[in-house]
Structure formats: C-alpha cells, structure tokens
Amino acid sequence: MTDQTMSGAPVNEKTRQPLRVPVLHMGIFAALLIFFLAAPFFLYPVFLMKVLCFALFACAFNLLLGYGGLLSFGHAAFFGGASYISAHAAKMWGFTPELAVLLGTGAAAVLGLVIGSLAIRRQGIYFAMVTLAFAQMVFFFSLQAPFTGGEDGIQAVPRNLLFGLFDIRHDRAFYFFVLAICFGGVLLIYRIIHSPFGQVLKAIRENEQRSISLGYQVNRYKLAVFVISATLAGTAGATKALVFQLASLTDVHWTMSGEVVLMALLGGIHTIFGPIAGAALIVAMQNYFAGFGAWVTVLQGAIFVIAVLLFREGIVGVIGKWLKKPL
Amino acid sequence: MFELLGIAPQALFGQLLLGLINGSFYAMLSLGLAVIFGLLNIINFTHGAQYMMGAFVAWMLLTYFGLSYWWALVLVPVIVGASGIVIERLMISRLYHLDHLYGLLLTFGLALIIQGLFRNQYGVSGMPYSIPPELQGGTNLGFMFLPNYRAWVVVASVVVCFGTWFLIEKTRLGAYLRAATENPTMVGAFGINVPRLITLTYGFGVGLAALAGVLAAPIYSVNPNMGADLIIIVFAVVVIGGMGSIMGAILTGFGLGLVEGLARVFYPEGSAVVIFVIMAIVLLIKPAGLFGRTA
Known about the structure:
The complex is a heterodimer.
Chain A: H1 3-7, H2 23-38, H3 45-67, H4 76-92, H5 97-119, H6 124-144, H7 171-193, H8 196-206, H9 208-213, H10 218-244, H11 254-267, H12 274-288, H13 295-309, H14 314-323
Chain B: H1 9-40, H2 47-65, H3 69-90, H4 100-122, E1 138-140, E2 145-147, H5 148-170, H6 172-182, H7 184-189, H8 194-216, H9 226-241, H10 246-266, H11 274-285
Antiparallel strand pairs in B: 1-2
Subcellular location (chain B): Cell membrane
InterPro entries (chain B): ABC_transp_permease, BCAA_transport_permease
GO molecular function, one term (chain B): transmembrane transporter activity
C-alpha cells in the first residue's frame, strides 16, 4: 500500500477548493454574534468585554498550540506588552481607540517576530521553556522601564473619540467596539485555520519530518504562525487595556501565560470554539470566586490537573466527539 | 587597597559571593530537572513549588516539632521526596504514553495548587528562619568578610552536586539509570524494574529541590512564592546548558550565578535579565545548548 494509508491520512483532494464554511460552524458563529449583540442589555458590559478579549486571546494562542502544535508558555508577553503600548499611546499621545489598538497590535507583531525567530530554534518542551523565559524578560522590562509605571501600571487610560468622531466612553457603547474587534479577530483565525496555510500547519504538527521531506520550509511556517498568534494576542491585550483603562504587571506576568493555556486546554485545543468556551468559563470563575483570594489559584491548578488527566479533548472537544462533527 | 575598574573589591567580591550562592541554587535545581528529564522526559514545573515546600517543611519541623536545621537537612528531602513519589505514582505515571507537553501542563497545575494552598495558609509575607547557631557569624578573609552560613551553602551544594554526578556517572545504580534513559525497554528486558527506577528518580530529583529549599530557608525568607520566579530562571539555565549532561547542568548553574553577580556590579539594571539575554545568544549560536546533544 502507499504511504498515505500507512500514516492514516489520505490525500485530501478538496484542500484546493475554496473555503466552504460548514453550516454547523456558520450557525454557531451566528448564534454567538446574536448572543453577544443582545448580552450587554442584560449582563454587565465590562464582564462581557473581558470575556471577549480573553476569547480572542485564547483563540490566538490556540492557533499556535492546537494548529501549529507549538506550546508557548510566554503569550503574556504579547498580551501584556501590547496593553502597555496601547495604554501609553491613548494616555500620553491621545491616540484614538482604534489607533491605540493598532499600535499595540503592531508592537506585539514585532515582539512576536523577535521572540519567535529565536524560540522556533528549539522544539517541544524546550520551546515552552524558551518562550516562558523571554516572557519573563519582558516582565522584568515592564517592571523597570520608565513608561510602564512599575508596580502601579498605567492607570486612568482615557477612551478617546472613536476615529476622532464618536464618543464611546460609555461602557455599553465601548462594548460594541470591543465586540467588532474580537469577533473580527476570531473570524480571521477561523479563516487562517482553513486556508492552505492552515492545512500545511496541521501537516507540520502531525509530522514535521515528513513535511520537510515534502519540501515545506517548516521553520518559515512556524515563524509565520507564531507571529500571527502573537499579533492577535496583542490585539486582545491592547483592547483589554482600553476596557479596564489600565495596563498592569498582571497582564505580563507568567500566571497570565498559564491562564491562557488553561483556557485553551479546558475548552479543547483541537477545536475552533473551545478556547472561546474556555475563556468564558475561566473569566466567569475568576469573577465569582474573586473574594476567595488564593483559592482561585488552587482551583485553576485543580482544573489543569483534571483536564490533563481526564479530558484532554476539552469540553468542546467532547461535545464535538459526541456530535461526531469537528467543532 | 586595590581597585578594579573603579569598583571597590568588597563590592565586587560581595556580589561574586552572592552570585555563587544563587549559582548554587541554580545548579542544584537544574541538576534535579536534568535528572528527572533524562528518565521521565518531562519538565517538572512543580520543581519550584517543591523547593518552596522544602523551605516550608524545614520551618514547620522547627516551629511545630522543635527539630533543628540539621534534622531538617536529613528529613526534609525524604518527606518532600516521598510526596513527589506519591504524585508520580498517582498522576505523572498516567501520562508517559502521551505527548510530553501534557507532563509540563500537569506539573504546572500541581505547582499552582501547592503555591495556592501555601499562600492561603501562610500569606505572602514570609516566615523568618534563623541561621543555625553553629554557622552564625563570619570569617574575615582579609579582602572581604565571609558569612559562615553562605560559605556553608556553597560548600554543601558543591558536595551535593558532585555527589549526584558521582552517583549517576560512576556507580552501578547510575549505570542502570543511564541505560534506562537510552533504552528503557531493553533495560526492562534485563530484569530491572524500570517503572520503579523512574519513580525513585522522580523522588530523588524532588528531594534535591527540597534540599535546596532547606539550604535557602535561612538566606531568603520562607514564603510561598520563593520558588515561582526562581524556576523560570532555572528553566533558562537549563536551556543554556542543555539537559544532556549532569556536569553541564552543574557548571552552567554555577557559571550563570557568577555572571549574574558580575552584572550586578557592572550593570545593575541588566542583572535581572542577563541570564535571558545569554539564553537568546546561546539560541542563536548553539541552539542545542552549551552541553546539549543536537536533537
């Protein structure tokens, strides 16, 4: 028999066809959009905006882990780094929200290019340790740099006029700005996963040696997905800084890198919607248990342990298996 | 008195000593990580938490049972190592057939649990642990004042590191261990109980971390976060050294401690990140690490 049957992955003739979004996925996106359009009228908008930012962050992170097969333990660097840039731009230079987010995103892309090009020189566990170490470096930089405000962070970040025209200072108005960014970001990630580029990524994840022998420049693909992931994580962080009108050390700390891993893992790393579900659950949990101090950490650790030992497919992964459809 | 590049010798030697102390801990912790990684193929993220547990158990033995530092040196590695063995048997052993990244995630979760529990119980401010009376005071070496306890830490960690090196590289047990690292199936076929060897190795690595914790207790205050930030630096040390060789882990640990000490003298602002910068340079020049075998 041919190699294809041995590796269990038959050649997919359809990959060159234009993207056809399955009805189920379209339905879920529509349901999510409708829910999030209506939600601010009966749920606390700031909470919802936090969910949205973390959903984008988790999806961006999972693009790298679930589809690139690279576990980064340093995504807080991009999330937090972008939040500092965006907060600084909005507060000190009077940038409008969309420009502040754009600048933060760009900064995360540059940082992703630098860290990524070094980190992809190692694989597996080493990759995780290298990204963690570089993120810690960004943390120390944020602690000492003159513009970050040290332990205080950048506080009272203004929400300026959108495009210089529209007043969106109010939480509910700002919510729709955040919704547009985060929903757009998630759709972009969906598009990337299902592009030819995304298919090559999956091939590299499944068998790196084989992809090399097929003539793919594996390191370029890895670097590209790392930069995309970092960039969109930056978008999420830059937006979050404007939501809470604060950029602080929490966002660059290694616990944040761990949190985003947990969100993806809990929701399901080989799924599209898993990280969104994971982000919503973890943010909700943090909200409800906020008064219990370090018990939140214990609980997060326990979820980690249980997820790794008992359901590695994640919540959405299990549902997908049950429906016999990839979600 | 002589001066070196405008730096007073007291300051220079003081910082070098501090670097050597930090290096002792880097060496002991990265050694434990390397031993565990060799056989289990996982990175033990709980290592920092287990180092912290070592310091805390020493403090508990003193506070609740009145057992002195010297008792702690013997008992703590056994107690914490035993807790590691329980963890390995109950949880980590279930993951050997999976991608090694799951081991990293599991031990990360365990670290969060342990740190959270200790934070709940003891807060973040830290507990004092006094230097044992036998090691108080210091010696004047002429060019600098050497606190006895710090000298003891350096000597003890050198002895522990080279003892471990001897155990692994020069004894029969170590030969089994190295053989099992290369080919566990074959070693099992020769009648050696590989799963038990793996369990004991994990216990031993955790015991090393706990011992480092006991040594650290009188120097740094005993607090629940003491291991969390240290472990990230130790990860960088491990990346720089490569985990292929025991001696490599030891030398890299001490060496980077000294480099950090020098950085604190000549460029204090950069001292927190100097190890990470070195890591970046090593990744550029020799990605497998200074002592690493190319994958």
